[in-house]
Amino acid sequence: MALGRDDVAAWLRALRVVYAENKTLLTDLDAAIGDADHGINLDRGFSALVAELDKNAPADIRGLLQTTAMTLIRHVGGAAGPLYGTFFLRAASACAGKQRLEAPDVVALFEAGLQGIVERGKAAPGEKTMVDALAPAVEAMQRSLGDGGRLGDILQAGAQAAEEGMKATIPMEARKGRASYLGPRSVGHQDPGATSAWLLVKTAAERWR
Ligand code: ADP
Ligand code: MG
């Protein structure tokens, strides 16, 4: 199965619903080790995105991802706006010229997005950030692709690894972003950004099954 432009649009619109539904969860997680705005930030960003898509929907995959990047950068403050903005900007470049995404293209999309977040935020694995969910997800997707997995299996493997990576942030001490100001007191809490990153992958797995 390959994905077309409408499948990508459906993922982005589903993310708006998912982040609205998880607004309180993400904000509560951020209240424990940050400033209680992560859910609000993503809800605002993806609501703005859907408003933009309703008004002016790009005709191709790259354009959709580019509009997502620009909208998130414009409407989402804090760390997450530029980081997820960079994810979608790099994802857009990875999809340049593609009308359809085959399994390797989907893995390349997530790989490029993760790379953008790492370059922008400079977080290494283990520093209690969204990277701790996304990096294992990308590795699991690459592994599944290498094993000849189909798109649905690849995304399922990615979502599961993201969930495990998200849970693994609980005992970590934050080394990046606002939570790092707490030092050892950040231990024992699940990272909000790792949680929103899990939702990003999980929603793709659900929409693109
Ligand atoms: P802010 O911390 O500015 O209020 P958000 O609350 O929206 O922004 O996002 C917080 C999340 O951003 C954290 O949970 C963490 O996962 C992520 N984050 C913060 N700094 C970095 C970084 N340098 N690299 C990757 N992710 C980061
Ligand atoms: Mg915050």
Task: Name a few traits of the molecule.
single chain, 209 residues, mainly alpha, Serine Threonine Protein Phosphatase 5, Tetratricopeptide repeat, 69% helix, 0% strand, globular, binds adenosine-5'-diphosphate, binds magnesium ion
Short précis:
By secondary structure, the protein is mainly α. The longest helix has 19 residues.
How is this structure best described in words?
With 209 residues, the protein is an all-alpha fold. The chain has a single domain (5-207), classed as DhaL domain (Serine Threonine Protein Phosphatase 5, Tetratricopeptide repeat). The protein is 69% helix and 0% strand. It is built from nine helices and no strands. Adenosine-5'-diphosphate is lined by residues 30, 34-35, 37-38, 41, 78-80, 83, 117, 121-123, 129-131, 176-178, 191-194.
CATH architecture: Alpha Horseshoe
Put simply, the count of helices is 9
> What is the H/E string?
HHHHHHHHH
Low confidence ranges: none
Give the radius of gyration: 16 Å
Write down the CATH topology. Answer: Serine Threonine Protein Phosphatase 5, Tetratricopeptide repeat
Secondary structure tally: strands: 0
Strand content: under 5%
Number of domains: 1
Average pLDDT figure: 97
Biggest sheet character: none
In this entry the ligands are: adenosine-5'-diphosphate, magnesium ion
Rough outline: globular
What is the CATH top level name? Mainly Alpha
Q: Give the terminus-to-terminus CA distance.
A: 9 Å
Label the structural class.
mainly alpha
Q: Please, what is the CATH homologous superfamily?
A: DhaL domain
